[in-house]
Specification:
CATH class of the largest domain: Alpha Beta
CATH architecture of the largest domain: 2-Layer Sandwich
Strand content: 15-25%
Oligomer: single chain
CATH superfamily of the largest domain: BMC (bacterial microcompartment) domain
Number of helices: 9
Distance between the termini: 147 Å
């Protein structure tokens, strides 16, 4: 549809027919024959549909004339009207201007745009359903929507390539005649934008406009540094070292030693050096030139032992015999 938002001071043209596929074909021919804008369709029941166009007076007259000729080719009984300067009150009350245009263009973008349009109209709902199923099974087409205009007339609208839509319509016509009554068939190879926006469309084919998400660079705010209070440490005097007490040895009573306490006589026995081979059980003592100490007169055994240690060499072994 054109970008015109206000149809004030523009002429009004209306063409009526008794078939929805026929009025779509008429509207397509009107748009392609002159510079008019298709506002929409008004369906009043009993199969009567009206195409409403707006534009300059000359364009509207030419479009209505071309539409009437095409309706006669379709064998339609039609009525036409051209209003050069419609009153503003008509724009407010009747669906012939902005209100009808907003209903037609407010649905969003369609996934099926720029595809051929096929319309098959039957009298009776079962015939339309059977024809729609046959059309989708016979060619690569989709069911865009359906439309009812009263008097038992139902129209199935399919979309696809021109060849696929033509093949699907042939199969649908055969199935519709087998089930019920076939009323009208229409093929629009290259629908204009105005016609595409005013055709019925199921909600599953409408693309909702999604907002464009642009990544934004968020600047990080610098964190403020908080000054901490200074910690003042007072100098504390060092503690004097503790005086170490001197540990005095504990005096214990001497243990009783029967050998050391009793007076005994020690006799030193000199042992001559034996040959290299000696008996293992024989205890030998080496003879030395050291003087012999007589400890027989000593009564204290400890004093005798200490006296002997002073005169004997370390490498000599002595054996004492206690008496």
């Amino acid at each position: 549809m054109s970008n015109r938002e206000d149809f004030t001071d523009t002429a009004l043209g209306l063409v009526s027919a008794q078939s929805f596929p026929a009025i779509v074909g008429i509207a397509d021919h009107m748009l392609k024959s002159s510079g008019v804008t298709l506002v929409g369709y008004e369906k009043i029941g009993s199969g009567h549909c009206t195409a409403i166009v707006r534009g300059s007076v000359a364009d509207v007259r030419l479009a209505v004339q071309e539409g009437a000729e095409r309706a006669q080719q379709f064998g339609q009984k039609l009525s036409t009207l051209v209003v050069p300067r419609p009153m503003p009150n008509l724009e407010v009350v009747l669906p012939i201007g902005n209100r009808l245009a907003q209903l037609a263009t407010g649905r969003g973008h369609s996934k099926l745009s720029n595809q051929a349009v096929g319309l098959l109209e039957t009298r009776g709902f079962p015939a339309m359903v059977g024809a729609a199923d046959a059309m989708m099974k016979s060619a690569d087409v989709v069911l865009a929507a359906y439309e009812t205009i009263g008097a038992g007339l139902c129209t199935a609208i399919i979309r696809g390539s021109v060849a696929n839509v033509a093949m699907a319509l042939d199969a649908g016509m055969i199935e519709a005649e087998r089930i019920g009554e076939l009323h009208a068939v229409m093929l629009v190879p290259r629908p204009l934008e105005d016609l595409d926006q005013t055709l019925p469309l199921a909600s599953c084919w409408i693309e909702k406009v999604q907002p464009l998400r642009i990544p934004l660079t968020v600047k990080e705010t610098e964190k403020e540094l908080v000054a901490l209070p200074e910690l003042v440490t007072e100098a504390q005097p060092l503690a004097a070292p503790l005086e170490q007490k001197r540990l005095e040895p504990i005096q214990t009573e001497p243990e009783f030693n029967p050998i050391a306490d009793e007076p005994r006589e020690v006799e030193l026995i000199n042992v001559e050096v034996l040959p290299d081979i000696v008996a293992p059980d024989t205890l030998l003592e080496l003879e030395t030139d050291a003087p012999t100490l007589d400890v027989s007169a000593t009564s204290d055994a400890d004093s005798a032992s200490s006296a002997i240690d002073k005169v004997r060499p370390k490498h000599l072994r002595h054996r004492f015999r206690h008496k």
